[in-house]
UniProtKB/TrEMBL annotation:
GO molecular function: G protein-coupled receptor activity; olfactory receptor activity
Statement: the UniProt record of this protein carries the keyword Transmembrane: yes
Record-annotated membrane-spanning stretches: 26-47, 59-78, 98-119, 139-157, 203-225, 237-259
Domain G-protein coupled receptors family 1 profile: 41-291
PANTHER family: OLFACTORY RECEPTOR
Gene3D superfamilies in alphabetical order: Rhodopsin 7-helix transmembrane proteins
Keyword Transmembrane helix: yes
Protein name, per record: G-protein coupled receptors family 1 profile domain-containing protein
């Protein structure tokens, strides 16, 4: 009957990055800046592409989906983080599980979207004569439906397993948001199934998709090297270099976090916080810049909507 003496957790205390008071304003300004840039940049991408028919192509279709995912991710994590910095560092049990659900959803969707975008670049460069059929509107819609459906299935399974756990040892989350590895450390229930599912999802969504993406880019680079003109090679590399940089950073950080969900050392958790910033805040902030800063078509469409040179 020992379980009767356990006090079930109804809210969690989120430690954040630092408990040193004089560092809180710096962290607040840092994350507020990231959230402002990420939100405005991704909304700008969504609006510009949606209202410009010249950008209604497969590449920009997936960019719109990516913008939606990044808005979902940052809006799930950063507003609550900012609120905790100026108020009580707590989140209710229900709020924590909701944050976990939407973050895991956006995480899975982003990983799958990167693979879909790599496939689009593969077809564009390696199979240009078949691009219109291999990347038709129907194919793009099916790929997007697959991305959202698989990511929803993944987060539903992991969230359901998390709901079955009891949290009674501690309510102190050694992180800045509710993430699977951090919450598993607080459970007084067996977590083997949760850890197995988190590991399996990471192998499939991160490692598996990363390998597919790298295979696509191996084929792309091979095709680019066969191009005779320097200008042609430069143009081909420019269409995929930004995507490759983003993918490499994102996959490596996610794999680092989820491939070892049972790690419990304090230094490992502190490192995990820094790594988590990359895929919850930095990546959504940089994505609009990486994909649109050097894109002439996007800048032309943006200038039509907001003529800066009047």
């Amino acid at each position: 009957m020992a379980w009767m003496n356990q006090t079930l957790v109804t809210e969690f205390f989120v430690k954040g990055f630092s408990e040193t008071p004089h560092l809180q304003p710096l962290f607040f300004v840092f994350f507020l800046s990231l959230y402002t840039v990420a939100l405005s940049g991704n909304i700008l991408i969504f609006v510009t592409i949606s209202f410009n028919s010249t950008l209604h192509t497969p590449m920009y279709f997936f960019l719109v989906n990516l913008a939606v995912v990044d808005i979902l991710c940052t809006s799930t994590i950063l507003p609550k983080l900012l609120g905790n910095m100026v108020g009580r560092k707590t989140i209710s049990y229900e709020g924590c599980m909701t944050q976990l659900y939407f973050f895991t959803w956006s995480l899975g969707a982003e990983l799958l979207l990167f693979t879909a975008m790599a496939y689009d670049r593969y077809v564009a460069i390696c199979r240009p004569l078949h691009y219109s059929t291999m990347m038709s509107k129907r194919v793009c819609m099916l790929l997007a439906a697959g991305v959202w459906s698989i990511s929803i299935l993944n987060t539903s399974i992991n969230s359901s397993l998390m709901f079955q756990l009891s949290f009674c040892h501690s309510n102190v989350v050694n992180h800045f948001f509710c993430e699977i590895p951090a919450l598993l450390k607080l459970s007084c229930s067996p977590t083997y199934l949760n850890e197995t599912m988190a590991f399996t999802a990471d192998v499939f969504l991160a490692v598996g998709n990363f390998m597919i993406t790298m295979l696509s880019y191996a084929c792309i680079i091979s095709s680019i090297l066969k191009i005779h003109t320097t200008e042609g090679k430069k143009r081909a590399f420019s269409t995929c270099s930004s995507h490759l940089i983003v993918v490499s950073m994102y996959y490596s950080t996610v794999i680092y976090t989820y491939i070892r969900p049972s790690s419990s050392s304090g230094s490992s958790m502190d490192n995990g916080k820094v790594v988590a910033v990359l895929y919850t805040a930095i990546s959504p902030t940089l994505n609009p810049l990486n994909y649109t800063l050097c894109n002439k078509d996007f800048k032309t469409a943006l200038n039509k909507m907001f003529p800066f040179n009047k």
